[in-house]
């Protein structure tokens, strides 16, 4: 890979210590409701530092809900409730020792549809990651370059940082959104079907970026693309909801096990496209 910016050391942090590796997220007996409707039941899952964990399973089985529980976005829905616990390096993200803004700063989210501010410049879009989480940074310019480099976009945009973000391609916009979430140096990056609105070439670029980020940031990705799950993840969790039942994790483990020798016949059927 010829991009020299990739090997640059990290700029000094916005504040607080640099974390060179991602944190470990541990979900225990997580259940979730919207009103009286239970949509997740008893999810146990460890999402470890230095690994990509892929959440797979049919639509409606609670993958996005689970992801939103992992950075406290679930509670933004007025009817939503949950049970169980989520620990980040042993600290309860729903406990009193962490504020919700700290949680969302340490655990970032990238959505299915790239959502930059289209009229805002590329540089300001990246810097918006700091603003959104109330993070002060003396070295804004350095952080913008670092974040764009880590998202694999620096070489493509370095000559036009003042241009509006709306002029970028869909894949570039998604990498811009990744860069925006990286400005605060999160420990964890949650990605909800980040490539499903993108063409195959853009998808592969994002997959490369995920591979490069993995050593520094814990990544949890929801994907419907089984080849993608195999390409990018080291761990996989298969979610399934039986009719009129909440979603559950049928099984989780090393990606190779989930694809080549799963314990449960339903996992095998799903990963081989039989439902
Ligand atoms: P997935 O991401 O696996 O497709 P979701 O987490 O989006 O599944 O949805 C799980 C279940 O929760 C579905 O039955 C869905 O209709 C329901 N659901 C999701 N979001 C809401 C919401 N804001 N209000 C009510 N029900 C919701
Ligand atoms: Mg979803």
UniProtKB/TrEMBL annotation:
BP-aspect Gene Ontology terms: phosphate ion transmembrane transport
Chain spans, region Disordered: 1-23
Xref: CDD domains: ABC_PstB_phosphate_transporter (cd03260)
SUPFAM superfamilies: P-loop containing nucleoside triphosphate hydrolases
Keyword Transmembrane: no
Gene Ontology MF annotations: ATP binding; ATP hydrolysis activity; phosphate transmembrane transporter activity
Keyword Acyltransferase: no
InterPro entries, per the entry: AAA+_ATPase, ABC_transporter-like_ATP-bd, ABC_transporter-like_CS, P-loop_NTPase, PstB-like
Domain ABC transporter: 25-271
Xref: Pfam families: ABC_tran (PF00005)
Keywords: ATP-binding, Nucleotide-binding, Translocase, Transport
Source superkingdom: Bacteria
Gene3D superfamilies cross-referenced by the UniProt entry: P-loop containing nucleotide triphosphate hydrolases (3.40.50.300)
GO CC, one annotated term: membrane
Protein's name according to its UniProt entry: Phosphate ABC transporter ATP-binding protein
